[in-house]
Amino acid sequence: MADNRLIVALDFHKFSDMERLVTLLGDSISYYKVGMELFYSVGPKAISYLKERGKSVFLDLKLHDIPNTVAEGLCSLMVQGADMINIHASGGFTMMKTAAERVHKRAEEMGAVCPKLIAVTILTSINQDDWQGLGMTCEIREQVIRLARLAQEAGLDGVVASPQEAAAIREACGPDFMIITPGIRPIGTSTDDQSRIATPEAALKNGATHLVVGRPIRAAEAPKLAAEAIIKEMEMVK
């Protein structure tokens, strides 16, 4: 029943908590996100555990530094087997281009499949007040589109963006560009600390290729049933 478009966020400190959820979800989920909380706690062990069970892994560490540091950091991370890794688009064109070129070169040298490299545009937790507080005069949507185009030009495979901007990114960047959308909240669930959100069906209709879902599954009384309900909703959009 697994739908590879659904990525479940493993936002845990403990390996045992991650293991418990992955076991509970079983064959219903094939793709997982390992973020800062889990990776900084247990390290590459989390990735190894998932890969040994045939799962795909999105390593969500959002690298952001000078071009060489980010590029070499990615090369160190890619050997651990993640299928997708991300960086911050706000690091600029040169950082993104250097990262893409270096990672592809290292993968070729290793004879390995290059992980998908995507760029975070604007965090989905940022609302208009936060945005203006940063001194920004353009609209959030305008900046997201600008960063998506820049990431594509730099040779990246896609971006992380809110589902509310997915349609505009799809129009700007074409049919093959990946759009990974957090901030997914099924009807009737809490928005938590997310500001720019959408339901699974709406996000896919807007052009998202992958949906990242954490708390609506992890905090549900029956996580597997919650995941399968989301998949059922996703199947309405092919």
Write the layout of secondary structure elements.
Blueprint: E1 6-9, H1 15-25, E2 31-35, H2 36-42, H3 45-52, E3 56-63, H4 67-78, E4 84-88, H5 93-110, E5 116-120, H6 128-133, H7 140-153, E6 158-160, H8 166-173, E7 178-181, H9 200-205, E8 210-213, H10 215-218, H11 223-234
Outline of the structure:
The protein is of the alpha/beta class.
Structural account:
α1 (15-25) packs parallel to α3 and α4 runs parallel beside α5 (93-110). Helix content is 45%, strand content 16%. The protein is globular, with a radius of gyration of 17 Å. It has 11 helices and 8 strands. It has 238 residues and is of the alpha/beta class. The protein has helices at 15-25, 36-42, 45-52, 67-78, 93-110, 128-133, 140-153, 166-173, 200-205, 215-218, 223-234, and strands at 6-9, 31-35, 56-63, 84-88, 116-120, 158-160, 178-181, 210-213. It has one domain (6-234): TIM Barrel.
Give the topology string: H per helix, E per strand. Answer: EHEHHEHEHEHHEHEHEHH
Termini separation (Å)? 15 Å
Task: Please work out how many helical segments DSSP would assign.
Answer: 11
Q: Assembly type of the shown chains?
A: single chain
What is the radius of gyration? 17 Å
Shape: globular
> So, the CATH homologous superfamily?
Aldolase class I
Helix content: 40-55%
What order do the strands of the largest sheet run in, or round the barrel if closed? 1-2-3-4-5-6-7-8
Q: How much beta, percentage-wise?
A: 15-25%
Structural class: alpha/beta
Largest sheet: 8 strands, parallel, barrel
- What does the average pLDDT come to? 92
Number of separate structural domains? 1
CATH topology: TIM Barrel
Number of strands: 8
CATH architecture: Alpha-Beta Barrel
In CATH's first tier, which class applies?
Alpha Beta
Q: Are there runs of 5+ residues with pLDDT below 50, and where?
A: none
